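4.2 Preliminary Data

To establish feasibility before requesting continued support, the project team ran the inverse folding procedure on a target of 443 residues. The structure was first converted into the token representation described in Section 3, and no sequence information of any kind was made available to the design step. The complete token record follows.
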């Protein structure tokens, strides 16, 4: 039975809660092998329904207000459901059996998402704790992954929208951009935080700020600053630490890498071919003049490593490792800078090495293990695919700053619940059987 504090979610005009749970079960059944691993669908339905109710009650204790708890339950089950479009209006219609009450249901959800002043961070953190409790029971967190994704939009009134580059479209287009932080174990991943990038054209425009109800305390921040804010929150929350992974848009910043070290976090940074480094001799001393990563790669010996089974073939490339000191003007004496690995990657379809990484992991780690860690960054693309394709992450049609973050918070909670279900039902060995995580290498 639905916990008493959430019974407003199935009040007058709402579909029976059991049917809302069925939407969740439909989604869970799409996880490859879920039903076959369980053996009996009935067991999945009964157990999952109890856990859905418990999860909603747990988040409800954070929301506090009874109406908010009810709206959160309806919105969550809507995002987990099978609706093609998961914006507020279709979710309200889906939850309402009486057309005459549809407008009232819509208004309640709209207020909950766009105007209610509940704490996004507190709700997200509760969901993360719930999921990590299951995910880390048999394997530890290995990586924190920083990335950003675009939300394609029409018009110019949705908060943060402008013509800007997004990797989601592979070009400059009219969109919003969100920066995310994801935690990954060897076989699973969990998005834990999201921030909307607010361009200067929005942050410094008073009329636009008023239109989108942007809080006074929100000021312009670069994507790197937003990423650091999320990382600092994760550290303050005591989330299990991992190697922080990010692409060259973040990795080329020596200030960003230095900020992570001040937080006592190790990193695996994608960097551009133009980044310069000093080579080290056998005694760990700098030698010669700084050279670019591209130049150094032309002097290295490469070995082939296979890091993962792909859908069609094993994913492999040639790699070279070199202990180096980054060369940049940051006010720190070169002799006092830490030594790091420069990892050069040469893919089969490219005429020369074109991907480069800096990482400060221990020099005693084998190369195959370092590659395995660096390649965890692909997980964030799967997160975006799942959240946009299944959980309506990019379906929000509101224009307000608070509404965007509230919608994303509920989507993150949905992902956390599904991740916990998957962790409960699939031991790591079963997941590795479908996607080999071991690395093989050859000369």
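Position-by-position output of the design step:
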């Amino acid at each position: 039975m639905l916990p008493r504090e959430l019974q407003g979610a199935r009040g007058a005009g709402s579909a029976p809660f059991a049917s809302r749970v069925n939407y969740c079960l439909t989604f869970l059944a799409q996880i490859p092998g879920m039903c076959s691993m369980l053996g009996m669908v009935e067991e999945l339905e009964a157990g999952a329904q109890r856990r859905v109710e418990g999860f909603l009650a747990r988040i409800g204790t954070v929301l506090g207000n009874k109406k908010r708890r009810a709206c959160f339950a309806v919105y969550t089950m809507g995002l987990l459901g099978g609706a093609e479009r998961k914006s507020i209006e279709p979710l309200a219609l889906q939850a309402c059996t009486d057309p005459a009450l549809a407008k009232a249901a819509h208004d309640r959800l709209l207020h909950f998402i766009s105007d209610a002043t509940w704490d996004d961070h507190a709700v997200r953190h509760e969901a993360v704790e719930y999921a990590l409790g299951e995910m880390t029971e048999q394997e530890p967190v290995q990586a924190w992954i920083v990335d950003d994704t675009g939300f394609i939009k029409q018009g110019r009134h949705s908060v943060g929208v402008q013509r800007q580059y997004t990797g989601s479209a592979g070009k400059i287009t009219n969109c919003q951009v969100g920066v995310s932080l994801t935690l990954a174990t060897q076989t699973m991943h969990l998005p834990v935080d999201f921030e909307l990038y607010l361009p200067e054209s929005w942050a410094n425009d008073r009329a636009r700020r008023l239109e989108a109800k942007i809080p006074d305390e929100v000021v312009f921040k670069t994507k790197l600053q937003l990423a650091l804010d999320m990382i600092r929150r994760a550290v303050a929350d005591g989330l299990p630490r991992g190697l922080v992974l990010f692409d060259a848009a973040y990795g080329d910043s020596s200030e960003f890498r230095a900020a992570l070290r001040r937080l006592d976090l190790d990193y695996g940074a994608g960097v551009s071919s133009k980044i310069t480094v000093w080579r080290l001799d056998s005694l760990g001393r700098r030698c010669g003049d700084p050279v670019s990563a591209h130049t150094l790669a032309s002097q290295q010996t490469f070995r082939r490593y296979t890091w993962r089974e792909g859908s069609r073939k094993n994913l492999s490339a040639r790699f070279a490792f070199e202990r180096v000191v980054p060369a940049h003007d940051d006010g720190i004496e070169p002799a006092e800078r830490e030594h790091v690995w420069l990892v050069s990657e040469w893919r089969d379809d490219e005429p020369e090495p074109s991907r480069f990484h800096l990482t400060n992991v221990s020099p005693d780690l084998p190369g195959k293990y370092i590659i395995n860690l660096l390649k965890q960054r692909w997980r964030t693309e799967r997160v975006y695919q799942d959240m946009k394709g299944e959980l309506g992450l990019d379906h929000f049609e509101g224009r307000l700053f608070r509404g965007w973050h509230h919608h994303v918070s509920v989507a993150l909670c949905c992902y956390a619940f599904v991740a916990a279900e998957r962790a409960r039902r699939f031991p790591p060995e079963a997941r590795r059987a479908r996607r080999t995580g071991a690395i093989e290498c050859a000369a």
